Every structure is written in C-alpha cells, then in structure tokens.
Amino acid sequence: MSETNSPTTLPAGAAHEANAMTTPQTLGNIFFEPGPTFEALRERPRFLVAALIMLVAFMAFYLAYIQWVGYENLINAELETRSQVTEMSDERKAAGRDIQLKPFVKAIRYSVPVTGIAILLAAGAGIYLLGAMLMGKGMSYKQALSVWTYSSLPPLVLLMTANLILLLVRTPTQDSEIARGLNGLVQANPGIMVDAAAHPVLATALGALDLFALYGLFLAALGMRKVARLSSGSAWAVVLGLWLLGVIGRIIIAATTGTPMA
64 with 162: CB under 8 angstroms? Predict the structure, then answer.
C-alpha cells in the first residue's frame, strides 16, 4: 500500500510555495510580520520597488524641507552655523554663499540623496554578504541586498513620515535648527540632551542610539538569520559590527570638523 503525504510532510516545492509572497505582500508584511517576509525573500530576493519607495520617502521630506525653509535661507543658516565653529570671515561666507547659489551646485545638492542612497544600498549589501561569508554561511549578493533594503524600509518610511508631519507643525526658524533640520527634525535619541554645537562628539555618539536606527538593526539581524541562516549571535555580530564602524566614522568626522554628525 502506497504511503500518502502526512500533514507534516511537504511535497517537493511546497516549502517554496508556502514562503512565496508577492512584492505588495512583502512591502506590507515587513512592517508586521518581518520573520516570514525575510523567509520569502530568501526564496525570492527582491529590492527594487522597496528601494524606490525609500528614495521617494526620503526625497519627499528633503525637497519639502528645502521648499519650506527656502534654499537661500538654508545656505545662510549653514554658513552662519559653520562660522561659529571655524570663525569664518564675512568675505569667506559671501564667497561660499555665491558658490552654493550657483545653479550647477544647487542641482548637485538636489541630486546627492539619489546617488547617496544607491551607494549606501550597494555597499551595505556587499558588507552583509562578506559578513555572512566570514561566518561560514552562503548567500547571494541579491539576497544580501534584499536584507539591507527591507530592513531599512520600515524605519526610514516611519521616520520620514514623522519628519514631514513635524515640518508642517513647526518649521525651524533659528539658524542652528535650520542647518540641522535637513538631516531630520525628529530626534528619537539621547543626543537631544546635549548642546550639539558645544559638544559635537558627544552629541554624535549619543545620537547613534536612535530608536529608528535600533529598529533597523533588529530587522537587519532578523533578516540575516532568516536569509543567510546565521545564528542569532552571528547575525547580531555582523549587523552591530557594521553599525559600530559607521558610528566610529561619524565620531571621527565630528571630532575633526567640530560639526555634529546625524
């Protein structure tokens, strides 16, 4: 008598079908069921639509902020804030203002986030791939890219939404606020308790302990567990190692320039 499939035995290909999700499903489920979503991304890695949503969300706040405060006001605020640290002369400030107001430079400033996000996604995925290899596990670059993109999507979308709401409620007016605001108005970290201008290094270090960033780290570690099949400890080692490198880099820049790094 032939054996029938038991309830606990899946036929060939059934496991893949059980994990399958459409792109709209992965985009929605990553917010509420990240574990199964990353399982689905292991079987069918994707990133393009999520990356485009991230870009649109970021650019929505970036462009709205410049429009609300005014491009020239932003440049003046940045120069005034920088001059308090470097004792910039009026002549140098005027020259810097003229350069920043040139159409070519203005176009570069508007387009920088597009290039920056693309580079960040590509480089981050490469480091996650390397981390998985060092831990003795295999994953494709496309899988690593899906982990990086989908772990970044929820915190970025939530943060940019909160930034837009706060911009509508209270637009910055002081130079220091205007200059910092382009990096985000929502401060969900202990860095808000420190005078950033007086203590840029401490403000940068405390600013790294951001709730949105920690949410992203949790998703990234979960993604590395599900997609690369790493242990919990190994996944966190890869994710936190990359995060610490970023924090150290920002602290070095803050110490060198005297400017707090978001």
Answer: no
Q: Which two tokens stand for residue 53?
A: 């949503």
Residue 62 near residue 113, CB atoms below 8 Å: yes
What is the rounded distance in angstroms from the CA atom of residue 183 to the CA atom of residue 163? 10
Cα distance between residue 58 and residue 150, in whole Å: 15
State the Cα–Cα distance between residues 29 and 255, nearest whole angstrom.
41
- Dist CA 147 CA 130 (whole Å): 13
Q: pLDDT tens-digit profile of 196-232?
A: 777 888 888 888 899 999 999 999 999 999 999 999 9
CA distance 119 to 117: 5
Q: Which of 42, 35, 39, 54 is nearest to 153 (CA)?
A: 54
Nearest 5°: CA angle at 31, between 129 and 230? 30
Give the whole-angstrom CA distance, residue 228 versus residue 237: 13
Q: Are 164 and 148 in contact (CB under 8 A)?
A: no
Evaluated on CA atoms 242, 247, 253, 259, the torsion sign reads: positive
**CA distance linking residue 225 with residue 236, whole number of Å:** 9
Measured between alpha carbons, how far is 10 from 19 in angstroms, rounded to an integer? 12
**Is pLDDT above 60 for 68?**
yes
